[in-house]
User: Which sequence fits this backbone?
């Protein structure tokens, strides 16, 4: 067992800084020893804030450092696959934010590099580590709802990302829904075989002009006969709306939003309670910590990460199928993709 | 204004008796003066229980009675259209349980008879009168959620009906989902244009052997671009699950189940609250009363019923489209039907 | 078994009309045959509204009518005891609104008349028949919370009664808290031995000028060692607040308010749900029906009413103890009263 | 402004370790440089776990260290006052767990030492920093409920402490209720003037044999006329029950428990949700962090701590009054104490 895992961070943007803080202060088993960002200033600010010894604009410095056991890839999506391959070839375990890439061939190349090298790869599907969803998953896995019949996932952001981001994001199905595709696979023990997606531009015409949609309902047909739906909006004015429900032969389990406080205020007009936590940094902070703890523990104890390369690939296939379904207005089998 | 509306009831089964009790004891403006049922005994029992002066096995007696202003049709579905036509020709206002018929030509004939006679026709889509759904509808209509983007309807029965009933019911889309098709139209001000239905036999193989399915998810595309889903199961072991959610540009409104009491019990194992009210007689008793009050008031005040013949026809079109979609596994436009 | 119970109503005010409607339309086993009110007009209006054959300003007419089996006393409090005695002597069963009287000697005289005559007497502590409180009581009785340790009763009105009413009401402890004293006895199987009451005039100075208070917290010491509190306010601006909680060695049961609908509205400002049902007519309609059904059934089946004369007397003792405690600012034993 | 606050920890028991972890990993502005515990081993384990440079069994080492700016006192209650005085004389700011002492003269001596030295003193009433209670307090302070009339505090532990601890704890009012006395003062802007306490031994006879009680209800009379209650039990089998409600002329605010996840499970038997978080380490972890952040910030920015010496003294007066009230079964004015 490795007593301390030396970690290099690639990408010091918003999510990179979340992992930096986690690794620096919350996981004693990890040493965050280097941070790289194409913007030197971002790397340096991150290093200063989280007491990281080395800041660089060149990720190669991290790949070349023999003392580093693992890398956390939080750079822009178009660099993920290449950095995974480089890290794998350098013998470093990899934690990578989703998605691996928007192109299956590119993903497959990265996954082959990982397999060839034998390093561990964990994908950043953080919601699996959220206490609410985890509880739902565990209840389903324990058979408490019997045979699953129906799965509903609601996942609405409080506000859309900048249009410039949307343009390079792969669109809603590969950027936002991808988390829900993973959730759909996580909640019950069956793969999705067919997808039907409808949607539209309801939030902001600029999103439509960028070639994307901002609202969608995706219907899923699972191999075991179960049916799922995913509801996505880029803008829920009341905050981050993240719920699931799984219904089966013996009951159901439903997960509600988290709220910042439980105070309920009653006056002559109404009874008011808190809105959901605003966005992913608020809602999933505990999940970000948990996934990173698991990643570090997998390295220390030489066990397999719970979210693997194939778990990173399948949601991309689902996203591509959703786009095809949306464009052709028909159910599309996953087997039609790739 | 008619001071008292004389009413004849046709069909003294479960729902017929609900209306009988309502008319006999809860609506002073109505006199329930006759009941007809093909089973004489049922008519007589109903008459005895609710102090109805006349019981008969022949509905013609009711149509021929000049003192009767209105009829309530609660007989089996295959008789609805014919009784509507007869009542209309006899100049009697009609309240009819859903559906009018399973065949559009038959429906149209009945609606023409109604139109020709000028009598009022109200369809028994009771859920519109449920305080929860009514509140949701009113909030949407008042613009509180802005432009509607998404509609979700969950409608699960606690237990399936007898297979013999299922065989003549028109199947899940025309028997169960039909209520939700009406709800989908009621909640927002737009018609559904296209339907995609998937489903399966998950509850009881006997339902499948009868040519029906017992679980379905229907996706709706509204004319205004909004998207809806309907989730139906013939068996939710925890009771009647009747919820809706409408999400829009300025917020959302969600309706939960009704429960028999608010007691919450906490012990060393868990925190437990009451299951939803068991089934429609428990959940919708207030709605049954409200719809009948409105029907009687429309007659008294010579106003238009809020649920009309066309409101009875469109959900049948939707049900037929859903069956076609299910069978062909593709989205079906309502314009393809009829 | 009496097939139909003939009932005379004394007092056609607000609560009298509630019972009139219930008896006229909801309880087929009862015939409401007469109504008396000191205001002839009120009696006549009530008779017209609920199809009661006889209206009179003289209750003696009811006592003298041999066809009448039972009387419902809803007249002003100062007449309750005398009417109970007269009814008893006339051999009529009695349902009487709370309190029997504000004076224990007067109460005892009435109870003696009841006992001497052998008629049944049921007190109008309607809350025992509310589904929420009934469920709490049943859970406690079934041992689900183990040995009861703590009882909390919250009972706040939405608005104070007119000051003229307050002046003759016996004050908050005998008018409002009296319901909660009964609830305190109903919830667990032990009598209260000692009471400590503090309070003040917080809602309306006019209530203080009338010699009453409008807000109070009463602490109860039960014979079995359990401790209770009652929280009363004459004005909760958000509506009728009626909750209880019983806590014991094996768990707790807590009862929340009833709401008119379950719709939850989320917007950019907050998450809003419905206020509690406004007041007793809304909240306890089901309880009023249930208590009257039980009373009629007790007569038909010759069984004992569940809320007896002594159940009417003890809360008055508690109210008197509370007043003494409030005035002397010390715990007062019930044994000090009477 | 001090860039980094050097902190010494005295007492490495359960709560000491909570603060150690917080200071070591969650507050970059603090350096935890030393830990003292009368049990050398405990000090050393704490030092090892949280990377504290110095471990000692002698707190004097900390007082004598000129580099140390502040001390955190988490030792046994009987040492608090003396350590406060020593720290103050050594010019070190003090964060001290409650209570300062069980004896007012001892408290006063410590507070005088603090005042003479000019150091800052913050008391460990962590619940003020809980997001739920803070929200309630802020709503009250913002006038959202108008004039406060009623305050209810429910505070039940999941399990009693060891009897050996109880024996030296000062009893329930000085050990458990003391937190609620502080909460009672925190929630509204008025001091408590009079206390009436009743209680008993309901959980464990051994607690009674140790001279303590395990269940109590305390009634509070505030200077402004408001009334409060505190409900304490040493054992709620369903977990840590920590709720408050403040009711006023314009509305109310009520705070519910925190739960580990929002999953709701419905089956044929019931609808089940999660029990409250188990105990203070689970429920108040965020509050422990927040109070420590505030303490460090007060030192850095030379501002006054929000929970002062007098805030530490008054709840002890209240506890002593409660004991006297309980023993004499009468309301006791705080002015009778001291």
Assistant:
């Amino acid at each position: 067992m490795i007593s301390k895992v030396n970690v290099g961070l690639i990408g010091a943007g918003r999510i990179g800084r979340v992992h930096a803080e986690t690794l620096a202060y919350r996981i004693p088993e990890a040493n965050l020893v280097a941070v790289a960002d194409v913007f030197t200033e971002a790397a340096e600010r991150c290093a200063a804030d989280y007491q990281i010894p080395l800041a660089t604009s060149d990720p190669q410095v991290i790949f070349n450092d023999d003392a580093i056991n693992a890398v956390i890839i939080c750079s822009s999506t178009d660099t993920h696959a290449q950095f995974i391959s480089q890290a794998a070839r350098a013998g470093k375990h990899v934690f990578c934010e989703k998605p691996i890439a928007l192109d299956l061939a590119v993903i497959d190349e990265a996954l082959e590099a990982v397999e060839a090298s034998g390093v561990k790869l964990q994908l950043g599907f953080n919601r699996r580590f959220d206490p609410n969803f985890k509880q739902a998953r565990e209840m389903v896995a324990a058979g408490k709802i019997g045979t699953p019949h129906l799965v509903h996932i609601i996942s609405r952001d409080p506000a859309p990302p900048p249009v410039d981001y949307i343009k390079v994001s792969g669109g809603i199905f590969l950027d936002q829904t991808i988390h829900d595709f993973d959730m759909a696979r996580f909640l019950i023990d069956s793969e999705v075989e067919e997808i039907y997606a409808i949607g539209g531009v309801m939030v902001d015409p600029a999103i439509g002009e960028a070639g994307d949609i901002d609202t969608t309902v995706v219907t899923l047909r699972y191999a075991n006969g179960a049916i799922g739906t995913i509801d996505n909006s880029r803008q829920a004015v009341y905050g981050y709306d993240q719920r699931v429900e799984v219904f089966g032969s013996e009951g159901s389990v439903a997960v509600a939003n988290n709220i910042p406080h439980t105070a309920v205020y009653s006056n002559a007009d109404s009874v008011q309670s808190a809105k959901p936590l605003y966005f992913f940094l608020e809602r999933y902070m505990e999940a970000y910590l948990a996934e990173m703890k698991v990643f570090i523990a997998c390295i220390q104890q030489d066990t397999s990460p719970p979210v693997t390369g194939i778990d990173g690939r399948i949601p991309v296939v689902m996203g591509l199928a959703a786009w095809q379904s949306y464009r052709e207005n028909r159910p599309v089998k996953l087997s039609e993709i790739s």
About this structure: Chain C touches chain B through 30 residues (CB under 8 Å). Residues 309-328 of chain C form the longest helix (20 residues). The longest strand of chain C covers residues 148-156. The CA atoms of residues 253 and 297 of chain C lie 30 Å apart.
